[in-house]
Amino acid sequence: MSFSSDPHSRSSRPPTSPPAAHDWESTRVLTQISPRFPNGQAGAAEQADDTQDIGRAVGNGVRELFVACEPADAMTQQFDHLQPEFVSVHDLGTSASRKLLGGIAAASQRAVQRLVVRRNGAGTVLATIEYVDCPAANGRSVRLYSTEVDADTHTRQTLARVLLGRARLGIMMVGDLPAHALTTALAPWREAVLRGGWICRRMLFLPLTAGAALPAEVAKFRAATALDATPTAQVTRPADVWGQLCLAWNAWQRQTKPGQDVATLPLLGTGSTAAAAATAANAVAARAASVPTPMPVVGAPHRRTTSRSNAIFTI
Q: Is the pTM of this model over 0.85?
């Protein structure tokens, strides 16, 4: 069954303008986002990493963010203040992003984590966002968010816009959509970019099925938005997705931070991550490939499904 978190509704509120300093301060107090480390108990890298996190850790890979406003507005405030560098994965006509995060997490021996957004006071859960912190070559990590958020329709759509619009790299997983459906699916994203406040300048469109419509539609999207938006060849394994993601992310890191010790992503299953990938591969059944792959396929052996868009991510 396919699920799309596309923000098709034109009634959704546009992104708000950057919050004032006192707005951030009230959010920071609620979430305890920047705890201090007494007596130098944490190293500089650990302190830097913690200041880039959102919410309060409550254990078992869960963080909680208590808000007194809409979840999308709260996340915008957090991103505006922290300026994190992350990747967001969005689905167009498919439901592959969460499965992709699960495969990447298992292959790198990391856990899929959750950010639970709650209403301040009552504690009501408003949204749950899944992400994975991927190990980078410089010892830090790069966060991957899925925009397939557990929330009501309005909240899911507005959070998807914030997560994709504030990312440094946006990954679009494209299902089996004809040209007219692609045009419809991309229309709200074009409008979101042109509305302003859109930070993500690099977008990669990864088709899960073969088709001639995507390159032309991406070209129209690129011309209308002036974003660096490009399609890739068809991806047939999670390893293909990871490879394309790594190439795009690493190129952006090197272009924007020449001469620095940048957070490049190594191919899983090579270099220092080989042991982790091998362990993950032994823990789950992997589909054999005709050529070497940098990341093992996580989950049960591959099988055909009635939905071609989701077949490669069947778990």
A: no
